[in-house]
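Figure S7 source data.
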Amino acid sequence: MSIDTERTRLALRVNGRETTLEVEPRRHLADVLRDDLGLRGTHLGCEHGVCGACTILLDDEPVRSCLLLAVQADGHDVTTVEALADGDRLHPLQEAFRDHHALQCGFCTPGFLLTADYLIRTQPELEDEEDIRAALAGNLCRCTGYHNIVDAVQDAAARMRNHDGHLEAGDGA
Ligand code: FES
Ligand code: FES
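Tokens for the predicted FE2/S2 (inorganic) cluster complex:
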């Protein structure tokens, strides 16, 4: 049996930056982000689509980067958790997670932040606890019991709404 190690050239935007690289077609996007681009905020837990730790945004929608081949991201916009903060200025979601003690070990946190960012951008009026729990059900946390995460997302949604009900930060994160 021969193993195909031929590399494919990709051109994509990662956190707003035009990026070209050559990868073997068999490699998953999560591995390429972490190992080739050094974006280790994308965490790998289950590696088969269950835990949500590897969640990134592909064209502004959350996807599991452990289930995507890197070649599938060719020509697309990829956003990782590293793009949320603006230098030393935390994103409102990060501030809310900090203020509500919504993380302990932090392993699940990047996935929650990006899923919640999408949730708030697409449903800015979302306030109901049960709706937030349902929307975050695809992300697993072994530490917090979820309560503080839900509080943080509620608070972040309020912080990100201006007086007109439009988002003030995190648009297109
Ligand atoms: S590592 Fe991708 S869903 Fe768990
Ligand atoms: S904070 Fe540890 S898994 Fe969520």
